[in-house]
Write a structure and sequence with these properties.
CATH architecture: Beta Barrel
CATH superfamily: Porin
Helix content: under 10%
Order of helices and strands: HEEEEEEHEEEEEEEEEEEEE
Strand content: over 45%
Strand order of the largest sheet: 1-3-4-5-6-7-8-9-10-11-12-13-14-17-18-19
Distance between the termini: 24 Å
Oligomer: single chain
Largest sheet: 16 strands, antiparallel, barrel
């Protein structure tokens, strides 16, 4: 079934020239594969993986409705070039909406405004492990926020003198039940300002009644939230970026509330066709019910290079990982691979 849908998408993209000039359909994507060595202190592993920026294939298009109003759609699917068993159609993005001079309204599923700001910062070091800003690890090692939300309504403003803003809500479709599991409610807001070589970004997101188990069992429920503030400044070929992030989980289980602050640093230098990149997240000690957990602080780092063979093809190499305190083992990645966009 998935193969059939992709074939239909390709045929649709090839027929795009038959549309009027103000209507179009575009087939796009990325294929990124790397040889990756991983050492977590206990296990050493080499694998060929869909590393770096995730591989994907997408279809997007728009139709002019007159008077400056346009209809648009986007469907984007995760692919794993090294493993055909993974990925399902429309797994990354799925939107339909309207756009005018005031901005655009989208309905569907996809990345949140918070994730977009995190991705913008991560772009300075978007190699194998990356900085994964949005993770902001808590006690269970998982993400505070989901990077994509289902059942969503999103608004994106037009650029107003360098300023843009986005807002998104995701409605939970699971009702209250006998186990006490309430419907989830998600909301996110972000703003970004560009003034010459300077860029500033801020985002906040909240996921209430986020279910870490299943609706039927009534397992642990938490209210998750995070705040991110970041900025960058470019001086010729050199760019530096700094940021701060605070993540919080209010759990339904007594004694399981957690908080963590993170300080973000990244830099890149363009040397001809080669971009040199480095970054780190300094994660403060985890606070559990207001008490700092000993040896819970760690540093996530990334150091690498991206060499552009053309506008669409690049070679990448990187060393990245986590430096942990206490009994937790350090994590190290070494990767070399190729990226191609179309």
């Amino acid at each position: 079934m998935r193969t059939t849908l992709i074939a239909v998408a390709v045929l649709g993209a090839l027929s795009a020239p038959s549309f009027a000039d103000d209507n179009n359909i575009t087939l796009y994507g990325q294929v990124n594969v790397a040889g990756l060595y991983k050492n977590d202190g206990a296990t050493k592993q080499f694998k060929v993986d869909s590393a770096y920026t995730g591989s994907r294939i997408g279809i997007k298009g728009q139709e002019s409705l007159g008077n400056g109003l346009k209809a648009f759609f986007q469907v984007e699917t995760k692919i794993r070039p090294d493993d055909a068993t993974e990925g399902s159609f429309g797994s990354r993005e799925g939107w339909v909406g309207l756009q005018s001079e005031f901005g655009k309204v989208s309905l569907g599923r996809g990345k949140t405004p918070y994730t977009n700001i995190a991705d913008w910062f991560d772009n300075y070091v978007d190699l194998a492990n990356g900085l994964a800003v949005q993770e902001n690890k808590q006690a269970n090692g998982g993400n505070v926020l989901d990077s994509r939300w289902n059942n969503a309504v999103r608004f994106d403003s037009q650029d107003i003198n360098g300023f843009t803003m986005s807002a998104m809500v995701g409605a939970g479709e699971n009702k209250d039940n006998a186990k006490g599991v309430k419907a989830s409610n998600n909301a996110a807001l972000s703003g970004r300002y560009v003034l010459g070589p300077m860029q500033l970004g801020a985002a906040y997101a909240s996921q209430k009644n986020k279910d870490s188990g299943t609706v039927t069992t009534g397992s642990q429920i938490g209210n998750h939230s995070a705040f991110l503030l970041a900025g960058s400044y470019a001086i010729d070929e050199f760019t530096v970026a700094l940021g701060f992030q605070a993540g919080k989980v209010d759990s339904s289980v007594p004694g399981q509330d957690t908080k963590r602050n993170s300080f973000l640093m990244a830099a890149s230098y363009q040397l001809g066709a080669t971009n040199l990149r480095a970054g780190a997240i300094i994660n403060d000690k985890l606070k559990k019910d207001g008490v700092k957990v000993a040896d819970s602080d760690f540093v996530r780092y990334s150091l690498g290079a991206k060499h552009n063979l053309s506008k669409r093809t690049a070679l990448v190499a990187e060393v990245s990982g986590d430096k942990n305190k206490g009994a937790t083992k350090n994590l190290t990645y070494v990767g070399v691979g190729a990226m191609h966009a179309f």
